[in-house]
Amino acid sequence: MAGPYDLLSMSSFLRVLLFICIALSFIPEHAFVAGITRHYKFDIKLQNVTRLCHTKSIITVNGQFPGPRIVAREGDQLLIKVVNHVRNNVSLHWHGIRQLQTGWADGPAYVTQCPIQTGQSYVYNFTIVGQRGTLWWHAHISWLRSTLYGPIIILPKLGVPYPFVKPYKEVPIVFGEWWNADTEAVISQALQTGGGPNVSDAYTINGLPGPLYNCSAKDTFKLRVKPGKTYLLRLINAVLDEELFFSIANHTLKVVDVDALYVKPFETDTILIAPGQTSNVLLKTKPNFPNATFFMTARPYVTGQGTFDNSTVAAILEYESPSKTSHSTLSIKKLPLFKPVLPLLNDTSFATKYSNKLRSLASAQFPANVPQKVDKRFLFTVGLGTSPCHSNQNCQGPNGTRFSASVNNISFALPSTALLQAHFFGQSNGVYTSDFPTTPLIPFNYTGTPPNNTMVNNGTKLVVLPFNTSVELIVQDTSILGVESHPLHLHGFNFFVVGQGFGNFNPNTDPANFNLVDPVERNTVGVPSGGWVALRFLADNPGVWFMHCHLEIHTSWGLKMAWVVLDGKLPNQKLLPPPRDLPKC
Fold this sequence. Notes:
Blueprint: H1 4-25, E1 37-51, E2 54-61, E3 70-73, E4 77-84, E5 92-95, E6 121-127, E7 133-139, E8 149-155, E9 169-178, H2 183-193, E10 202-205, E11 222-225, E12 230-237, E13 243-248, E14 253-258, E15 261-268, E16 270-273, E17 278-284, E18 293-301, E19 313-319, H3 329-334, E20 337-338, H4 348-357, E21 376-387, E22 402-407, E23 410-412, H5 419-424, E24 457-459, E25 462-465, E26 469-477, E27 486-490, E28 495-502, E29 521-522, E30 524-527, E31 531-539, E32 543-549, H6 552-557, E33 560-565
Parallel strand pairs: 1-4, 3-8, 9-12, 11-19, 18-20, 21-26, 23-24, 25-33
Antiparallel strand pairs: 1-2, 4-6, 5-7, 7-8, 9-10, 12-17, 13-16, 13-18, 14-15, 14-17, 18-19, 21-22, 26-31, 27-30, 27-32, 28-29, 28-31, 32-33
């Protein structure tokens, strides 16, 4: 029989239990949700695909073009087993994933890994930390990404809402290309002749060219919507060499996110998206059935001198009719079709205004942690140049030379082994040097009359940064062989775009106008044509991190380099050891 003390202690216990239950009910549900582990298997294999009435065998993941989407939540671990069944060496990059301490899973061939050879496999193992939004994956060797790409959709943690209206439905819109030719032959020929590459035959939306191309009316992406709803479109530019304008006729889009980072929402009729970039936009459909269909079109924004695919891809926005009987497929075809008006091909004024609208959300929940002090400053020129023609050869570059591209006049040469392994095992001798110049070795009027000597230097030079270095990087376009917008992508980090302008960067006056409060944060930025961009980031991720132009031809020509970020002192500040199945060269 329980005594009075037992009853008292029992009632105290129940009171404490009740208090704990009440207290726990005030803690949001997502605080308890640990990430889960998600497994994917990617079989790299050939698949016959037909577009533009042209059938060819292309390299795919699991026979799909575009490739399968990866869906995860913030905090999840991903284990993606990639098995290579084709003759080509393959590696995959998870574009925009921070890869904190897991640089071995980043994917660029000969930078963080040797490629996966025929018959071999590799498990990419990483956790999504502090990221939510749209990213994407693609091949990161030669030009294989022309067919090897797909979306990465990162949902917020369970119970965490979007900082905007909850969409009725979410739809990936992936811009890509169709090439009748083999892209490996295209880049191989360009590198052999020293000239510019041939261009694609069509742009695609979710792998489909659409009705504006020959033989492609049946291959049209249709977005079927209901009136009075909000749709989240997850835009990805997976095109090799062109920035794109995108618009939906008679509809306004609201930009809420770029590169998986929330921005202050703004409305626009047209989106500008560079290769490598992603953007989430809200589409609010018309309140009533509009008795019309609408083109969704994309075409290039072009600033360079080279040839390009000057065509337009179209998809169709189609409203579900109020009654199924009154609007059959036949009568939908009879509805008027509205077409959007896109900016001119070279509308740099639009590009500038658009990028100036992008600002970090900078809320209490999603702050903009802009580095306020700077430990190391860098000035990198980016642009084209030339290399000598090999003896006994006629080259098709400028004045009989070969086209090249460079950062600070160094055209980067990838080694035959992986940079990250050489760094981790202290075997950099003969693989790379650590003397990448912090500023151009020979200053000149970068956007004025170009110098007579346009020859580049070649080398495998890296910048070494101590852990937690606060970096300010000015990226300056040059007029050598013509000014051009360069979408620059940094692996392993997001950076803040604190300033941009035209002409030459002025270190005495331009920093006064930097935005250190709510600059946009992203992983790929368009360096303005004939201008400069100022970036800041904290080097808080140990490893070797590739930085390159996301115009594939410029990467092939050498517009790339890499940063080595050293380990910090604490265990969570050190690069983890390589996995056992890391591919060998």
